[in-house]
Design goal:
The complex is a heterodimer of chains A (about 525) and B (about 350). Chain A is an alpha/beta fold and about 525 residues long. Helix content of chain A is about 30%, strand content about 25%. Chain A has helices spanning about 40-50, 70-75, 95-100, 115-125, 140-155, 170-185, 200-205, 230-235, 300-305, 330-335, 345, 355-360, 375-390, 405-420, 435-455, 465-470, 495-500; strands at about 5-15, 15-25, 30-35, 55-60, 65, 80-85, 160-165, 190-195, 210-215, 215-220, 255-260, 275-285, 285-290, 315-320, 320, 335-340, 370, 375, 425-430, 455-460, 475-480, 480, 485. In chain A, strands 13, 16, 19, 20, 21, 22 and 23 form a 7-stranded mixed sheet that branches. A 6-stranded mixed sheet of chain A has the order 6-7-8-3-9-10, with helices on both faces. Helices cover about 70% and strands about 0% of the residues of chain B. Chain B has 14 helices and 2 strands, in the order E-H-H-H-H-H-H-H-H-H-H-H-H-H-H-E. The termini of chain B are close together. Classes of the chains: A alpha/beta (about 525), B mainly alpha (about 350). The interface of A and B includes residues 327, 340 and 352 of A.
Amino acid sequence: MALLAFHNITKSFGPLVANDDISLSLEKGDVIALLGENGAGKTTLMNILYGHYTADTGHIEVDGKQLPSGQTDAAIKAGIGMVHQHFTLAENLTVLENIMLGTESLWSLSQKQSAAKAKLAKMSEDYGLKINPDARVADLSVGERQRVEILKALYRDARVLILDEPTAVLTPQEADSLFKTLKSLTEQGFAIIFISHKLHEILQISTRVEVLRRGKIVGSVATIDADRAMLAEMMVGRKVERPSLEAMDCGKPIVRLNNVTLRDAGRKVSKVPKLDQVNLTIHQHEIIGIAGVAGNGQSALADLLSGLSIPNEGTFELLDVPVTQASPSNIVRRGVGRIPEDRHSSGVVGEMALWENLISEDLRNAPVSKAGIVIDRKACIERTNDLIERFDIRCEGPDAETKLLSGGNMQKLILARALAPEPAFILANQPVRGLDEGAIAYVHEQLLAARKRGAGILLISEDLDELFSLCDRICVMYHGKLTQPYDAKSVSTSQVGLMMAGQDLRQTQDQMPEISNTPVKESSHAD
Amino acid sequence: MQIEPREYVAPWRIVFAPFAAVIVSLGLGSILILWVGASVSEAYLLLVKGALGSSFALTETLTRSIPLIFTGLAATIAFRARFYNIGAEGQLYCGALAATFFGTGLIVLPPLLMIPFLMLVGALAGGAALAIPVMLKTHLKVDEVVTTLLLNFVILLFVGYFLEGPLKDPMSMGWPQAEPIIDEGLFPSLVDKSRLHFGFIFAIIGSVLCWAMMRFTVWGYEIRAVGLNTSAAKFSGINVNTTVIRTAVISGGLAGLAGVSEVAGLKGYLTLDISPGFGYTGIAVAMLAQLNPLAVILSAIFISMIYVGADSMSRAINIPTYIADVLVGLSVLSILVSVMLTKYRLRWR
């Protein structure tokens, strides 16, 4: 009998069918990988399992017994443990307190501490999850926090662990250690559902891959029989082709960062600056990629380049003129186009109309407003109609509410706002996160077109494949420091991976290709 | 029971919500009326009659709505930018104090200039009263709900000091009241033999101007953007602090106008009881109007109707006037629930 079985699960949100007749089952020791693009329905399925949502039809069985729908506590009791992508830990409590929280009654929290500690110690021992139970969560590294999340699930006697994109925040080394833990758990009879869109991880850890596309299971293969290309094709539904970079001589420098250091604003001054002595030059006709594990200073760099902050030390020069004032409107006026990391929280105002979001960067200029006072609605709508057509934004019209747009169309809206004025420099921070392949290709085309017309582009991404296929040169961020730029065709993915984990490759110089700090003049990677 | 977001919010729901809220609050209020042993239909009939039943009642209701329109607008504009100004009461008194200071003989102008001048200084005083809380918010991140609320009591004591001291009317037989506003500064009457004054016209003009500002101007755009998504507003280059400060000054100014209109339009002189909490009721007005400046007019008239009607109802049958406060409170609670229900649906199982 299967440990956990989904039977014909269907769930729709209005016209959108998030899960369409999904059936799958897993046994003890299985690691099922749920593979799918953003919006394929992976998270919805897990939310149904965990009782956050109720399925429209179908049911779930654990050990042959039907799981009551829509009840999280029933799911926990049945042995389902969820490790969320975004940790659900209270930072100012200790590891032990976090694990007991929500498990033990609050009345007896203090009395049961020693028993809980013993149980936790035994679990740490059994599964090789080392952690100090009295450490404050705020002091733990990301990898350790994830360990606490796993222990929390195990403490509640979980037998099936769900891990939602568990490696998104980990360095390759931390990910390796996570995989070791998972291996040892499955050997002891646990079953694991592993949600990811990173193919190499899935091939490494899972026993079976279930591919989801548009809410349906489109393929189910034993991992031994699978390879990368096949999984990618199944996930996307067609052969995936990455754009190729046209060879081009880079022109004059557009952005220059000289020894830029940026510290935390406000009262809480951390010891480590957010940006530490960063040097970077971006020229015309080139795309520079920033690789790095999330949270190593990429946001700080993006804030600086989008005009939200200015360096504490060092200089930031835009077209040879230093930027001395933290002012997004000023930097836009000086020729910077910005694609923010999170389009919902900082890209658009969802409750405002399309046309209103398109004018947000030049409210006080003609023709958007007359004398900077009254908005010229007619002119704005005209401009919006024009951009809707040029950037192929699928919408009901310029008056439609922006939050109703799909992710790809919302990103096109932001592209239209940022790229239509033909900026000299473009900051693209995670520009394709959460988009489907069609929209990804569109964004990449637009960036390449901008490169062709002479813009300098900085592309921040966590996806190394994207960086390698799109960038002329790649730098790596680690703990606020930026490496020198490496020519994208003479550095390997694994070398970049090592640098992402903080290894200094200059110490092993002989393994590295010849690297120069001067811009690559003779780029010839038309592959 | 489960709460699920609606994929599509029909416009009729948004229009219908405040009316549903009013009906629900009257329904809940009837429980209290039954409790004291009165007839619900009779009580509500008396309430409507007392508020609208005669030209006297009607003009009283409209007169009472004037300060509520101004304070309702003050809350509307501020809340749109997510600046929670709970201090309209204090700003109202600041406006009244400024009108008294300049309008009791210090400056004499012909009425055509005197009235706008008094309104200007009152608005400036109301706006200035918000300067401290808004600066504390933008520069030190101090919560404005606390500062604006507490400043109300400070301002009231400050006004009390002026009425007992420098501005006290020597002819007042010892009462703490200021000298009367000079004739040039008094708002003309709107309807003969009633207390309804020109302030009503000013309030309507104010509502239309606020509506136009929110809808057609860069300032209005910035206020909405900052209120709806501060970080997106900031990212796109809107100066959030400037916008919040500007919004606060406008909001305080509107509340100050409520004070000017009470002093120069209705009472003629400043006392410590010109406002029975108009500043606070303004919040209810704004909520009931769903932060729409034009709807503020209707919402203020409705709430003033309840207050005026409840007065005469309680005189006719034995129901305490507090029923008005209860009804207004209930209508605010019901509007919050019904606005939520326009966006979400409840699913029972």
